[in-house]
Amino acid sequence: MSHDLPLRGRTAVVTGAARGLGAHMARSLVRRGADVALLGLEEDALERVAAGLPGHAEHWPVDVTDEDAMDRAAALVERRFGPPSVVVANAGVVAGGPFLDTDPAVWRRVVEVNLIGSAVTARAFLPALLRTRGYFLQVASLAAIGPAPMLSAYCASKSGAETFAQVLRAELAHRGVGVGTAYLSWADTEMVRACDRRTAMRELRAHLPWPASKTYDAGPVADRMVRGIERRAAAVYAQPWLRAGQAVRAVLPGIVAEGSRRAFLRLAGRADLTATGLLGAGGRAAEASGETRF
C-alpha cells in the first residue's frame, strides 16, 4: 500500500491552487495519499477544487504576498493536518505587453506575486519543514531559462524565483530540507489561454523555437512535478527537453531576439501590441487583492 500511496501520511501545501496547474497538482498529491492544503485568492474556486478531490483536502483563502495572512494560514494548516512535509510555491500571475507600455503597478504586482509571494510562502512554512525535514518546490518556468517577448515581468519574476530556490537549497541542505525548482513549458491552463487570446502574444509564442512553442496538457505536467516531489529532486523538468534547454540557455536570448524582431515587423499595424494588464481570472483576483491591500 505504501508503494501505491507514496505520500500517505504526508501533508502538502499548494499555493495558487484555485485553478490551473495548482489544482492539478493538488489532485495528483491527493491521489498519492497526501493530505492537501489549498491556498489561493479565490475562495469559491478553492472550495470547488477541494470538494472534488478524492481524499483529505482543506482550503484557505489567502494572498501569498501578505506576510501576516500567510503566517495565520500556516498555523491553521498545521492545526488541521499537522506540520507539512511538502510545500509547493506555485502561485503566479502574468501580464502581457511591451515593458514601456505596461502600467508600473501591474508590472510590480506580477513580481510581487511570483517572486515575493514565493519568499513569503517559504518564510511562513519553513519552520514546519525544518521539523519534518521536508521539501519545498518552487515552480519556475521556461521563462527562467529563456526570454519571452511581451512578458518582461513574468520572465524577471521567474528568473528571480529560480535563483531564490537555488539559494534556499544551498542554505538548507545541511538542515535536512530539500529544495527543488520545477521547470515547465506552456501548459494548457486558463492563464495560458488568456495569453493566447491576444493575437500578438499568440503569434510571438508561435515563433519561439520548437518545442518551446507547443502547449502541453496540464494533468501530465502536474503528475511529473509530483513525481519530482517524491524524489525530492533538485530540478524537476515537466517536459524532458527542458533539461537540454539548460545546456543552451546562453544562446537562447540571441535566438529569441532575432525571431522576435522578424515577428514584430510582421505584426506591426495588424495586431494589438498594447499592454494587457493582469490576465485571466487569477490575474483579476490578484489585481483586486493588491488594490485592497495597498
Strand content: 5-15%
Q: Kindly report the spatial arrangement of strands forming the biggest sheet.
A: 3-2-1-4-6-7-8
**Can you write the helix and strand succession as a string?**
EHEHEHEEHEHEHHHEHHEH
Q: Report the average pLDDT across residues.
A: 92
Query: Radius of gyration over alpha carbons?
Result: 18 Å
Helix content: 40-55%
Report what the structure shows.
α2 links the parallel β2 and β3 (57-61). α4 (104-132) packs parallel to α5 (152-172). The termini are far apart. The strands form two sheets. This protein has a seven-stranded parallel sheet, sandwiched between helices. The longest helix is centred in the middle third of the chain and has 29 residues, at 104-132. The chain has eleven helices and nine strands. With 294 residues, it is of the alpha/beta class.
Short description:
This protein is α/β, with parallel strands linked by helices. The protein has helices at residues 20-31, 43-51, 67-81, 104-132, 152-172, 190-196, 199-206, 218-231, 241-247, 252-267, 280-293; strands at residues 11-15, 35-40, 57-61, 86-89, 95-96, 135-139, 178-183, 235-237, 277-278.
